[in-house]
Amino acid sequence: MQEIRPERVLVLGIGNVLWADEGFGVRCVETMSQTHALPENVRLLDGGTQGLYLLPFLEEADALLVFDAVDFGLTPGTLVTMRDGDVPAFMGAKKMSLHQTGFQDVIATAQLMGYCPEHMTLIGCQPVELEDYGGSLRPAVSAQIPHALAEAVRELASWGITVTEGATPSNDLVDPSLARDAYEQGRPAEDDACRIGDYRFFPSAAKVRA
Amino acid sequence: MTTQTPNGFTLDNSGKRVVVDPVTRIEGHMRCEVNVNDEGIITNAVSTGTMWRGLEVILKGRDPRDAWAFTERICGVCTGTHALTSVRAVEDALGITIPDNANSIRNIMQLALQIHDHIVHFYHLHALDWVNPVNALRADPKATSELQQMVSPSHPMSSPGYFRDVQNRLKKFVESGQLGLFKNGYWDNPAYLLPPEADLMATTHYLEALDLQKEIVKVHTIFGGKNPHPNWLVGGVPCAINVHGVGAVGAINMERLNLVSSIIDKCMEFNKNVYLPDVVAIGGFYKNWLYGGGLSSKSVLAYGDIPEHPNDFSADQLHLPRGAIINGNLNEVHDVDVRDPEQVQEFVDHSWYDYGEPGKGLHPWDGETNPKFELGPNLKGTRTHIEEIDESAKYSWIKAPRWRGHAMEVGPLSRYIIGYAKGHEDIKNQVEGLLRTMDLPVEALFSTLGRTAARALESEYCGRLQKHFFDKLITNIKNGDSSTANVEKWDPKTWPKEAKGVGMTEAPRGALGHWVRIKDGRIENYQCVVPTTWNGSPRDSQGNIGAFEASLLDTKMERPEEPVEILRTLHSFDPCLACSTHVMSPDGAPLTTVKVR
């Protein structure tokens, strides 16, 4: 097998932090910046729910490592690693997305334009709970962050990139007011802030209210 | 049954019912149902926001100086517009003024977002309603080159070889089986009218626009420190200016200002050489398809934006016009006061919320967001699998905002109709020029095509405004003013015990307002009334229909099972359901289900 030695790597977390386990990807890169020292050719980025805005970052990268909450139909909290051709297919499968120009379309667009990163790895976590607006990660998903990061370190090592303990300050992460601790501590009480939604799309909400 | 709405539309809910769910190529999730008669004409339309949005409630108790960061996460498109609206609302509440440079920089950022959104909307979300990329594979590159040179002589990329290359690239993409971005099209529907060469030309510009949009967002990276999710600041902008500095980090220096300047130039060129000529060329083939006007010929609303001077939002100081037109009377443009409790009110009689009593309207400062999901007795299907919704009861997660009781359309077309009616010089010249070029009467504006054309004109105008504010910024800096923020009232100890404020912007898709109440240094209530709430609103207690619903009426569908016409008109609003409502499709299936009953 040919050795993979990308010059520039993008480590991207995607998802919506306002929405329980949907924030998994973003919280992974946030944690990584606090616990791991990455070399200069690796860029950490909170991609949020952005679509085409992410295109320039893909163009700049030879390899892409993405963290995301993905519905694989597995036991909640399960981590799955996918590579290259499998990545877009899985990101589209039953993916709950706030936006039609989802990340799958971003990849398709990058391919059409001829600047999709040559290597792509997705580290996905099966969510426990998404239907909790204003909530944060569930324990089973939160507990997977260290494992997801260990997997990322192994993947980066296979690309010839050494990661050590430490920190990687980055401008490209969530605003401090949205950082995990501040976000969780500032949450309004349930009586003040309804956390659930439409019965049709939130079956457990229907159960609660029935 | 035939009914007459107070705002002048005739509805007939007999005949076939066509359900489109979800409507694709938009932000967020919506469902649309229409009734179609034997001639294929739409006689009734029902638009449902299928997501519940809870942003307002999660802001309760938080620091108002942080609200922008949360509102930026509402959706994947308007990040900056929500953030700007939010900081304006908080500044208004606390009486904070911003420096001149901050006003220029905010305007440049807001205009960049406007141009970015308009271009991306036209080429990547809307063009496929008019342009058939599969048909482009049959084009003759030489004839395409001739067409390009005819519609836009000054566009440099027009050789036959260039179009042949693009065509080969497309072929490869399509043959690889990953039609990808072009999937879900109705590519053999007779509603598509372009010859293959025009399809190839427009599809080529789809690719050119992708390259350009990457450049535009650099403006946000430069002034907002990063993108996506640029930084904003209550009191100004979070970037310092030091023209003598160097490098790509730290204070804004000449090198980065020059980059902004070159991006502004690129946008202006693209608007002039590509976007506007495309709208004229494509529009020329669809000149007889003047459906979709809906509310635009009756009632339109704009809050206005892009203030010439900091802290002055008076109507005559705004470059994007403010005003309200009702009942089609273009001779009278009413001023709009978003603080007046009698003007902007939201109703929920047909929305899945509860105000405790029927027929009640609430001004956003007193707004409530109490969800109440219930379905009407005429529903077909079950609670979890709705076949046909009952629009006589509650049927949407979108509230129904009204201006003095009137359902209003908002967006680029509304801004342009108001500007035209007010005699706004730039807008009037643009509109008259376009109508002359296309040999169309002014009534043609009130259409789907008019909405699409207004967006292109606005993109061009916004480019010029960007240049104006860039020059203003440079002059001011050269005169020795490098101030970008006012932090006098940063400390909550300087705030009153209670305060309320409102922020307004013109988002790409229309009038956007955030209303905030602050108590003891914390957010007590926060309400966003977003453009798609206006346009996508359900019926109100009087039975008035909203802009989406009105726009679909009387449209002829070529094939009811292929809702090209519905998508075309709904897309012309650039709907964004992500912030007007909240989450989501049951399984995220990308394919739209179209059911004809």
TrEMBL record, chain A:
Job description of the protein: Not known. Could be involved in the processing of hydrogenase.
Annotated binding of Ni(2+), by residue: 22, 68, 99
Keyword terms of this UniProt record: Aspartyl protease, Hydrolase, Metal-binding, Nickel, Protease
Keyword match Nucleus: no
Pfam families: HycI
InterPro entries reported in the protein's UniProt record: Pept_A31_hyd_express, Pept_HybD-like_dom_sf, Peptidase_A31
Keyword DNA damage: no
GO biological process, one term: protein processing
Molecular functions (GO terms): aspartic-type endopeptidase activity; enzyme activator activity; metal ion binding
Gene source species: Rhodobacter aestuarii
Protein name: Hydrogenase expression/formation protein HupD
Matches recorded under PANTHER family: HYDROGENASE 1 MATURATION PROTEASE, HYDROGENASE 2 MATURATION PROTEASE
Automatic annotation (TrEMBL), chain B:
Cross-referenced Pfam families: NiFeSe_Hases
GO MF, one example: nickel cation binding
UniProt catalytic activity: H2 + A = AH2
Membrane topology: Peripheral membrane protein
Compartments, record wording: Cell membrane
UniProt enzyme class: oxidoreductase
EC number(s) per entry: 1.12.99.6
List of residues binding Ni(2+): 75, 78, 576
Positions bound to Mg(2+): 56, 582
Gene Ontology, cellular component aspect: plasma membrane
Required cofactor names: Fe cation; Ni(2+)
Subunit structure: Heterodimer of a large and a small subunit.
Stated family: Belongs to the [NiFe]/[NiFeSe] hydrogenase large subunit family.
Protein name: Uptake hydrogenase large subunit
Gene source species: Rhodobacter aestuarii
